[in-house]
Amino acid sequence: MQPTSPAGNSDVRRHNTAIVLAEATRGPGRSRAEIAAATGLAKATVSSLVDRLVAARLLDETGPQSATGRGRRGTALIPSPRGPHGLGVEIGVDYIATCLVDPTGGEHAHRVHPADNRDRAPADVLASVSAAITDAESDAARREAPIGGLAVAVPGLVDHDTGIVRAAPNLNWSDVDVPAALGRQALVDNEANLAAVGELTVGLDTRDFLLVSAEIGVGAGLVLDGQVRRGTNGFSGEIGHACVDAAGPLCSCGARGCLERMAGPAAILADAGVRTRAPLDLAITELVDRLSTGDARAVAAVASAGTRLGLALAGAVNVLDVPVVVLGGGYAKLHPWLAESVAAELTSRVVANRWSPTRVVPSALGAKAAVRGAGQAALHQILGDPDTYIRGILH
């Protein structure tokens, strides 16, 4: 569709402000003149926009640049750690987690509140989430930093446009309007999608990967060219409900033989003879201890789960052609014992493996990936449209 009217001054400023902030963030330590040269904007325009970004604490001036030759040195600009923080929340089956992420990508005040959310009404869970948010706001106040945005990670199908959780079987949720219940504007997304956002922030050496995350359930986040891909309706990534045995046990989704039911953490723990308990992390730690001592039952359970996980992943890689699979959540801790059997299935089943082998790597963030990614996603909303944020706080 062709534009029906020319862009106004406010639209131009909004666009240019985002460009200037992106350039300053891409190369910390640059001067106004260098940003002007890189963007093609007039020096006076860049200087004016930088002044607004500094006033909003999105950028800091750190003094004259280091001398690199003749000529006048400019003032170096960096993202401000004092600026608006993204507040990330993760609603797990057995916990609620929060953290703050500053404009430099630094993480602060990571908190985990144990809670058995499976048997609680959504309103009660979200009341606990509200209390956790209040605690996080107090943490931000102690840092003298404003909260610039809120994002919530949930283990289920999320309508990304509205924030309504359409189905979260492991929480027994259906059509839960999270922003309305919280009484706040919030970005709400599947926990695996936000875990993938988190992995992007920690220097993974590819911009194309599939993250498969295991908590109580199993989900996947797809990243192509550095962007999370959610599918037409925002419901992609439900790899936990890929069938790995049509005659297998009944899953919470109503189907049989799902990956989540047969190779999720609960299944692995049961096969290994480890009692599943809350928080799940304690049971995974016990399993790792047994694996470290060569416990035959534990090793066999993890290897079997890896074969089933590799079967599901091979189908996904054949369709998506991604070079890297990231094992997240509980799978990250099991990577040393899980990767071999996963890789064996990828090697035998991925058609392109001969020319482009798929790497299997552990998550750098592990159990923190989703809440960290939520905080980063909340911050991205500001970094992508800083002028709207600035107008909200300066006027």
Automatic annotation (TrEMBL):
It comes from the Bacteria. SUPFAM superfamilies: Actin-like ATPase domain, Winged helix' DNA-binding domain. Gene3D superfamilies: 3.30.420.40, Winged helix-like DNA-binding domain superfamily/Winged helix DNA-binding domain (1.10.10.10). InterPro entries: ATPase_NBD, HTH_MarR-typ, ROK, WH-like_DNA-bd_sf, WH_DNA-bd_sf. It holds the Pfam family ROK. Residues 18-62 form the HTH marR-type domain. Signal peptide: none annotated. Belongs to the ROK (NagC/XylR) family. This is ROK family protein. It comes from Actinokineospora guangxiensis.
